[in-house]
Amino acid sequence: MGRAVTVATCALNQWALDFEGNLERIVRSIDIAKSKGARYRLGPELEICGYGCSDHYYESDTLLHSFQVLEKLLESPATQDIICDVGMPVLHKNVRYNCRVIFLNKKILLIRPKISLANAGNYRELRWFTPWSKARHVEEYLLPSIIQEVTGQETVPFGDAVLATKDACLGAEICEELWAPNSPHIEMGLDGVEIFTNSSGSHHVLRKAHTRVDLVNSATAKNGGIYILANQKGCDGDRLYYDGCAMISMNGETVAQGSQFSLDDVEVLVATLDLEDVRSYRAEISSRNLAASKVNPYPRVKVNFALSCPDDVAVPTCMPIQWRHHSPEEEISLGPACWLWDYLRRSKQAGFLLPLSGGIDSSATACIVYSMCHQVCLAVKNGNVDVLTDARRIVNNETYVPEDPREFCKRVFTTCYMASESSSQDTCNRAKLLAEQIGSYHINLNIDAAVKAVVGIFSVVTGRTPRFSVYGGSSRESLALQNVQARIRMVLAYLFAQLTLWARGMPGGLLVLGSANVDESLRGYLTKYDCSSADINPIGGISKTDLKNFIQYCIENFQLTALRSIMSAPPTAELEPLVDGQVAQTDEADMGMTYAELSIYGKLRKVAKAGPYSMFCKLINMWKEICTPREVASKVKHFFRMYSVNRHKMTTLTPSYHAENYSADDNRFDLRPFLYNTSWSWQFRCIDKQVNAL
What mean pLDDT value characterizes the chain? Predict the structure, then answer.
């Protein structure tokens, strides 16, 4: 019997409820896998319907259409003579499961339900699915009539089982099961399973990729075996970007690596590996073999099919490779850029509009759009027909070929500097120079007339005219006047997004981009319904510190010299009047804390699950060289007061690219009240007691 098995995994840019597009991409991946000699093909989690269907999983339509797609796959010539492993929801005994459906030559071999469901952070699988809790147990599943007509089967095995082909044994894991402390691959490996498969719906978080890679490699380092991981990629209709990274590992080492960020809708990895390498690796691990002799066996579904060829002695096998990880700055440049491209083409809009203030946040957002234009031109240069087709539709030109990122940027990206009497010439010049260097269509306008008109209405009605604090007004008056400017900018941004192309004699509308970073959102340092209110925000999950590093990356890699002066300027909202022609307002002075401190507060609050008292206890040690306990207490109290006062703003926060584990996104990641008792009397009293003791 042969020993060299050829297997394929893939990363697919699936889209929730896009059954037709999802089917086409699945078939295309199978065709590619077969053309490269693969005998087994693994796809991402819930690839038939798309992972992000959310409450649509409750609908019988989602189940129906998933089986209709499965019917097409079973009938397709592409799926003949290759074991196909696809993901879809399945209702068994009126209970909904997240399943793998594994089939060969119009016969379903096994339906394997997910055992450990992802239910933390952005994931809510327990809301829609039930975990399969019957270990090593298989039941009969009655197939729908449309599937029975194709397969000739009335029932098929459903449950926790493995496949035994003529030359190997395969066992499936689904996403979260790899991360669980009692991963199924441990017991499966002890029971003789040689090939582990994992279909994932795993999203991008800065600095996370190495964790996934380490988990896959460690899965076979102690137990031996081949591990195949498939993942979704792209934006499937939500805040998340699924970052591919399909991979194949053997005996603790990576042998095939897929891209983390790519505009290719279909990416297939194929590897040929020697099963004898697995068997010999396991042979010398005596502790593993002792445990294996006592393991409870898995039900085996016998498959009269081989993953290898009889005469394969001369077939070359894959060798270990070194995984290359992106730096955080590269991740920011590529991840949000790919997410923006998916959102743009799938929303069928004609481009983006960004209020460009000349500060770090809006400039970083502009650089991400410019990076997107780079990725589009590179994909077209490399022969990506899908990207070329989308680009031509977006610019409304059937013969257009995007070759120069600056020229493409001019067509799809509009930037707008909205000056007021509080704006400096410096920020105006910085915005204009950056727009020139990236190639955006740039608009300069002044909002003073609109601000005066709005304030004038208030004065006519009330007989009172509010003033800025520098002119003798109260803090209430000053804040209200700042908010009027900020909100008028939002109104104008949407007006220009809807009608700028119309005024230029071009079809379509623009998506408005927001540019509030994760730290400002956490602190609430933004005006509700100002320019932070937009269609989408590519930097809303990224810290100020990481954005500064990203700006430096863009200076070096995109030669955007305009960013140097933006980097050196102190962050400012420019909403208060100038003093002697110079900006007197700065973000950190307004907030009463630095951005570096904000990042620490954010990580302690969300990642370390610290309330006011626990945060104080941690910080008196972290900051013992720079702050007294009383100073730490003051800082912690100020943060929690400001956080709780402004938490209501998170309920209307623009949908943002999720990139950071301390995001304050109220949608589903960071579930908190938005009406707090902002005195925190009990908690602060505990802090005060400790301060006095110290």
Answer: 94
Model pLDDT, residue 173: 98
Catalytic entry in 175, 338, 373, 416: 175
Is the CB of residue 532 less than 8 Å from the CB of residue 493? no
- The answer to whether the 4-302 and 328-447+492-590 domains have the same CATH topology is no
| Among 472, 82, 521, CA closest to 306 | 82
**What is the pLDDT, as a whole number, of residue 635?**
95
Concatenated DSSP letters for 378-411?
Answer: HHHHTT-HHHHHHHHHHHT-TT-----HHHHHHH
Q: Which run of H or of E encompasses 549?
A: helix 544-557
As given in the structure block, the two tokens for residue 210 are: 């190495």
Q: What is the DSSP letter of 84?
A: E
531 catalytic per annotation: no
How does DSSP classify residue 354? Answer: E
- 3-state class of 463 per DSSP? coil
pLDDT digits 0-9 by tens, 258-309: 999 999 999 999 999 999 999 999 999 999 999 999 999 999 999 999 999 8
Helix (H, G, I), strand (E, B) or coil at 488: helix
Which one of the listed residues 45, 267, 331, 576 is annotated catalytic?
45
Residue 182 CA: distances (Å) to CA of 92, 116, 126, 173, 179: 25, 10, 18, 12, 9
Query: Would you state the structure tokens that stand for residue 333, as one six-digit string?
Result: 């440049």
CA distance 28 to 88: 18
**DSSP string across 623-678:** TTTT--HHHHHHHHHHHHHHHHHHGGGGGGPPPB----TT---TTTTS---SS--T
Active site residue 398: no
Give Cα 426 distance to the centre of its chain: 35
The pair of structure tokens assigned to 173 is 């894991």
45 classed as catalytic: yes
Is 13 in contact with 25 (CB distance < 8 Å)? yes
Q: Which residue, 365, 486, 352, is CA-closest to 418? A: 486
From 29, 200, 308, 357, active-site residue: 357
4-302: CATH class: alpha beta
Write the pLDDT tens digit of every residue in 509-534: 999 999 988 888 888 888 888 888 89
244, 241, 253, 182: which is closest to 214 by C-alpha? 253
Q: Which tokens go with 580? A: 């002697």
Q: Where are the domains of the chain?
A: 4-302, 328-447+492-590, 592-693
CATH (one of 3.40.50.620, 3.40.50.720, 2.60.120.620, 3.30.300.30) for 328-447+492-590: 3.40.50.620
**DSSP bridge partners of 196:** 171, 227
**Tokens 């500097």 identify what position?**
417
| Spatial contact of 631 and 513, defined as CB atoms under 8 Å apart | no
Q: Which two tokens stand for residue 196?
A: 């582990």
Q: Which residues of 9-27 are buried (b: 16+ CB within 10 A; e: fewer)?
A: bbbbbbbbbbbeebbebbb
pLDDT confidence tier of residue 570, bands split at 50, 70 and 90: confident
Q: What is the mean pLDDT of residues 180-188?
A: 95
- Burial class from Cβ neighbours inside 10 Å (0-12, 13-18, 19+) for residue 456 reads exposed
Mean pLDDT of the 56-84 span: 97
- Residue 448: the pLDDT is 95
**The one catalytic residue among 34, 47, 53, 114:** 114
For 132, which DSSP code? -
Judge residue 37's burial from the number of C-beta atoms within 10 Å of its C-beta, 0-12 exposed, 13-18 middle, 19 or more buried. middle
Any catalytic annotation for residue 614? no
- Please give the C-alpha separations between residue 38 and each of 30, 220, 336, 415, in angstroms, as whole numbers: 9, 21, 33, 48
Higher pLDDT, 216 or 3: 216
Q: How far apart are CA 355 and CA 357, in angstroms?
A: 6
**Which amino acid is it at 215?**
L
